[in-house]
Amino acid sequence: MRRNERRESAGSRPGGVIVDLSRQCVSHVDVAWVTVTRVACFAQEAGAFRASCVTLDTANDILRRSDRSAMISDDRVALHAVADDLSGAAEVASLLTTRSGSATLVLAGQPRGAVCVTDLDARHLPAEEVSARVLAAVSATPGARVLVKIDSLLRGPLAALVGAVGPVVVAPALPALDRVVAGGVVTVDGRPLAEVPAWAAEARQAPTTVAAALSPLRTTVIPLATIRSPELPAALRAAVAAGLVPVCDATTDTDLDAIVVAAPDGVALAGSGGVAAALGRAMALPHAAEGDRPTTPHDEPLTDWDATAPDKALTRTLAASYPGHPLIVVGTAEAVAREQVRRLIAEGATEVTPGDADEQVIEALRGGAAVLRPTPGAAVDPTRSRAISASLATLAARVVAGTDTPLVLTGGETARRVLDALGVRALHPIDSVHHGAVRSRTDDGRLVVTRPGSFGGPDSLTSIVAALRGEWTHPTEGMSPMTSTNTPLIAVTMGDGAGVGPEVVVGALVEPRDDCRPVVVGDAARLRAAAGVLGLSPEIVTVERVADAEFTPGRINVIDLGLLPADLPWGTLSSVAGHAAYEYVRVAAELALAGDVQGICTAPLNKEALHAAGHRYPGHTEMLAHFCGIDEVSMMLSTPTVRVIHVTTHIGLVDAVNRIEPGLVERTVRRGHDALARAGIPNPRIGVCGINPHAGENGLFGYGEEEEKIVPAIEKLRADGIDARGPLPADTAFFVAGRGDYDLVVAMYHDQGHAPVKVLGIDAGVNITVGLPVIRTSVDHGTAFDIAGTGKVDVRSMIEALRQAAQMSPRPAGATS
């Protein structure tokens, strides 16, 4: 070691630090945990990248000014996410809030709670200051898993954010908003990022690739084929070991789930809200300890507010004059914002601008909602965006300080300026009105909705105001309404009441969801019994119609058919339960055909019980086809490793071979292709199995079935631009599909497809019926009579089935975001 270098302990982290005292900066060395004046980071070899070189004086100065020099977190933080702007931080906090506990969004002060999200307020800062804030934040929670929230449109100081945490896996995709990554390129609604107007308010051009956005970090693209293969963990480890930042392609939520699971231990994740949602699904988050959520803090405010605060007598008058009427502050230049404001005004809101006097804004709030935005029609000047945000914040804070006026804040910069001016130090997420629109409360009880400027459709603001109306004063803990009408309504059938169906339904639905609105068709009393078995206490509410359902965390809506006796034993074959299961499916199909729901998700039924009740159907697939008046549908099984669709299902092997013909094969492939396209895979690679061993081996096995029944279909499909390949030996097809070569395998008969799927992923498997007027998904397991009523059932397959139903189902007519 040179004389002008020293090493310091890294606490619980391996390695040390090299500090060049002659330059007073932290050098980037190979995989060493750096701890300098409470600033910790992994650093990489200087030749690999140099995102920034943070001087000690700069870091200390930044930490003092940002109130982070004294950040010493307790050891209860299991997951620490950092974001460079407030709307992104709120989105992550909402996605990480589960029944295991609520995430806390910290604006100032020490991290708190089992799940903490820190808003660094750094998007506008120079790279070295961004790095210093990241280092300070992560150093406060040693041992916590780290998530770096980055913008799905690649805005902000990405290299400084990502480079400061050391070894990191990057996945910017946000499939929920059709922002996906393929070949290292972000596309938005099918167009490359560089070709869309999302960067209108930025002072620079959009990057053409994720690698360009992360420059000068050295990156490597992890392609979709690897993401969907068993080689993903090894690929990520190899990239990190080589000093590279792996940039992961992803076009679906399933891709992001795989990335989160495969990320090496001790390596940070960086991504959009899509990765945050995947992390929330993957992690078993600990319960927040009593006292994690603090009362009103007595810390000093972030800004000197006394000089601009309104008269105290005036604020008391305001509190009595316009209780419940929200102030909407629109701090975004996105084109959609103009239409959102226009619709809000059409609903009765009053528009105000920064040039208006305080009294004008106050008068507007007395009459209803008021929307504050920059002067309409003014040209967008990216160099003045921060000044505009400041002027909006100054007026908004003067008007609402000392009142309980709810706030709707769009655009992360504007939202942060308003909350800073009000002295807000933390937010506690309650729910999401729609994707990205997060309703939270401050420590002193004010309701605040934050939303990225680019999120939401034309009715976003009207939906948010509707969610706030009448419920802002004293929200019940964790029980605020989810009133968005933008997500699909899903009918969830309870399955056989003597099996594990009621348990998996309750276990899957007790968690709040922002991707769909589930309504159970079943038996309310049986669901309550299942909740007791699981040790849960949801509010199970009977509704007459889907339209009567209300969606709040902890509430399960059920259309109660009342067909089960109170003393129905668990785990026993029952014709009564079989008939009830039949009726649940029938009613769900009727709701779908009437347009009351956009998808169906089914818990398992028992075929023997179904037949004992006189309903002679092989299973859900055929029963739904009958109810919907469809002659032909297909069964698809989906797991995190492989997907398979069946040409034939519940018939004998000899009958299956006789039934297979080119037209049936072609129609099956087309249904699978269309289903994957709806799920976000626009050009799926489809492997078509043969019938005989080795796919007949050029006539060596069988009687030419492949050439007669399969090849003509493949030729026609390929002529139409569908990437179908085969006939393939089934054993080879599933092997290469498992490593990511195919997005879908076409099996010719039941066991050819079911056997490998159950080996490769039954716990998270989903059964999907394609070809119906609506999508139908189901668990890929049976009624499990042997464990029914014991609380031992694994609900992951039901959760995944509901997620895929939400992903593949259309939004209701008239939905906009």
| E-strand count | 34
Number of helices: 26
Q: What structural class should be given to the helix and strand makeup?
A: alpha/beta
Average pLDDT, all residues:
79
Q: What oligomeric state best describes the polypeptide chains here?
A: single chain
Proportion of helical residues: 25-40%
Distance N to C terminus? 58 Å
Rg is 28 Å
Strands of the widest sheet, in order across it, are: 9-15-8-5-7-6-20-21-22-19-16-18-17
Low-confidence stretches: 1-75, 284-323, 470-483
Please tell me what the overall shape is: globular
Task: Indicate the proportion of strand residues.
Answer: 15-25%
Largest sheet: 13 strands, mixed
What is the gist of this entry?
With 817 residues, the chain is an alpha/beta fold. Helices cover 33% and strands 18% of the residues.
What does this structure look like?
The protein is an alpha/beta fold and 817 residues long. It has a 13-stranded mixed beta sheet, sandwiched between helices. A 12-stranded mixed beta sheet has the order 25-26-24-23-27-34-33-28-29-32-30-31. The chain is globular.
Structure characteristics:
disordered N terminus, 13-stranded mixed beta sheet, 817 residues, globular, 26 helices, alpha/beta
Topology:
Blueprint: E1 19-20, E2 25-26, E3 32-36, E4 39-43, H1 56-65, E5 79-83, H2 86-95, E6 104-106, E7 115-119, H3 127-139, E8 145-149, H4 158-163, E9 168-171, E10 179-182, E11 185-188, E12 191-192, H5 210-214, E13 219-222, H6 224-227, H7 232-241, E14 245-248, H8 253-262, E15 268-271, H9 273-282, H10 312-321, E16 327-330, H11 335-346, E17 350-352, H12 358-367, E18 370-372, H13 385-400, E19 407-410, H14 412-421, E20 426-434, E21 437-442, E22 447-451, H15 460-468, E23 489-493, H16 501-509, E24 517-522, H17 524-534, E25 539-542, E26 555-560, H18 575-593, E27 599-602, H19 607-612, H20 620-628, E28 634-638, E29 643-646, H21 653-659, H22 662-678, E30 686-689, H23 705-719, E31 724-728, H24 730-738, E32 744-747, H25 750-761, E33 766-770, E34 775-779, H26 796-808
Helix pairs in contact: 1-3, 2-9, 7-8, 8-9, 13-14, 16-17, 16-26, 18-20, 22-23
